[in-house]
TrEMBL record:
Keyword NADP assigned: no
Pfam families named in the record: TauE
Organismal lineage: Bacteria, Bacillati, Actinomycetota, Actinomycetes, Streptosporangiales
UniProt entry keywords in alphabetical sequence: Cell membrane, Membrane, Transmembrane, Transmembrane helix
Chain ranges passing through the membrane: 40-60, 72-94, 100-123, 178-198, 204-225, 262-281
Family: Belongs to the 4-toluene sulfonate uptake permease (TSUP) (TC 2.A.102) family.
Protein name (Swiss-Prot/TrEMBL): Probable membrane transporter protein
Cellular component annotations (GO), alphabetically ordered: plasma membrane
Compartment list: Cell membrane; Membrane
Organism: Herbidospora galbida
UniProt main location, coarse: membrane
Topology in the lipid bilayer: Multi-pass membrane protein
InterPro entries tied to this protein: TM_pro_TauE-like, TSUP/Inactive_protease-like
Length: 298
């Protein structure tokens, strides 16, 4: 029962972050499942089955707040579904021993990207309002969908920053469109896992509590996307993902680090993490102060 309550809280927190930042539900949830010993394919399958419900709820919530560009959803979602199905069948063919560190390595890479991207650069601006082209969105969707299924998460970490970097859509539209299109990705990945590993390797009680926590958080997150500073949230989430997946890798047969080495690595990473969040808070305040100075008095 304690494990189910913890998973429900993780589902809630992960969706709260995902719905307000456009990423991290899958990465965060899968990281936890790996940390408690779930094999790689089953962990990703569990998360993606839960995401069918959470992404639907999130999409509806973002639609109600007018946070979605449906043309972008169609252009990126369909290729994303194709990539996700391919990624799910690929991961299903890996052994449990090799799958866990490989997935942790993917998640670690995504965590580093999130931390560096949001800490150092924040949210890009420029070219707002220009159309998003299919020749950019289709390959992006195909790649992001494959990474999402093989890494247990990655649709948001790959898709959201890439579209934000273009400067052609306002952040809330990017986040809403990515969340809505992830519904197609979640369905395709789930089908791929069911074909690859079957339903007997999936704990549907875990799916249910992750889903419940995510559905409760979805409307809150869609509202928060207008109020929570994405730069600060991105730094916080990126550091958490890095720390957790480094732990998995250090304990794996690939590295098998001693306890003293693990402790040193954890301390260094924790200091970097805290420093990144503090820096992001400072930069956010500078940006807000500069915007206030530029705003003419009423």
């Amino acid at each position: 029962m304690r494990s189910l309550i913890l998973l429900g809280l993780v589902g809630f927190a992960a969706q709260l972050v995902d719905g307000s930042l456009g990423m991290a539900y899958g990465v965060t949830s899968t990281t936890l499942l790996l940390a408690i010993g779930t094999n790689a394919a089953a962990a990703s399958a569990t998360v993606h089955l839960a995401e069918i419900g959470t992404t639907l709820a999130s999409g509806v919530a973002h639609w109600r707040f007018n946070n979605i560009d449906w043309k972008v959803v169609a252009k990126i979602g369909i290729p994303g579904a194709i990539g996700a199905f391919a990624g799910a069948t690929f991961l299903s063919s890996l052994s449990t021993e090799s799958g866990a560190p490989i997935m942790s390595l993917i998640l670690l890479t995504l965590g580093l990207y999130i931390l560096i991207r949001f800490t150092a650069f924040g949210l890009p601006k420029g070219q707002l309002g220009k159309p998003m082209r299919k020749r950019f969105l289709a390959p992006l969707g195909l790649f992001a969908g494959f990474v999402d299924a093989t890494g247990g998460g990655g649709w948001g970490p790959v898709g959201t920053p890439a579209i934000l970097a273009s400067g052609r859509m306002e952040p809330r539209k990017v986040i809403g469109s990515i969340d809505a299109s992830e519904f197609l990705v979640a369905i395709a990945a789930s089908l791929g896992f069911l074909v690859g590993i079957g339903s007997e390797n999936i704990d549907f009680a875990w799916v249910g509590v992750l889903l419940l926590g995510g559905v409760i958080a979805a409307p809150i997150a869609a509202w928060l996307v207008r109020h929570v500073p994405p730069r600060i949230l991105g730094s916080a989430v990126g550091g958490l993902i890095i720390l957790t997946n480094v732990r998995t890798l250090l304990r794996s047969d690939w590295i098998a680090a001693s306890s003293s080495v693990q402790t040193v690595v954890y301390v260094v990473l924790a200091l970097v993490w805290v420093g990144s969040v503090v820096y992001s808070v400072g930069e956010h305040r500078k940006t807000k102060a500069a915007e206030t100075e530029l705003t003419p008095a009423a």
